[in-house]
Amino acid sequence: MNNTEDNEEYELNKIRMQKMRSIMEAKKRAEQTQQQTVSIYDKIDYVLKIVLMPEAFNHLSTIKKTEPNVYQSIFNELVGQDIVNNIDYLITLIQKQGGVARRIPLDVIILLERQVKGIKSKIQVKRGDDMMDLGSYLKKD
User: Fold this and answer.
1) Cα–Cα distance, 103 to 98 (Å, whole number)
2) CB 74 within 8 A of CB 60
3) Residue ranges per structural domain of the chain
């Protein structure tokens, strides 16, 4: 009778250990999945950090915090749907090549910002005491 109890105890322990092992493996898989699952926006930010000059990325980040609507328009202009769809492939290419050949300068971000805000560039010309924009100055002569 004692032998049967020992056998049952052994089998119960074996089942407990298998169950414990499967729980630990499931937990480990869940943690790995969570670490690997980076949101699409984090991936896009990573790519933008690499493709934009540092000052351009900083300026874009400031716009993101202060003017979300303007940021969204600039973001849509910079990041097309094809980039979103192929973001993992793009990240792989960047990592293999060690970066990008040419980075987007601050001027491009400022130009996009001005376009979104509807700001036209004005060149002011001083004629005597009068200030006028270049177009008016050229039409006068």
Assistant:
1) 13
2) yes
3) 1-37, 40-140
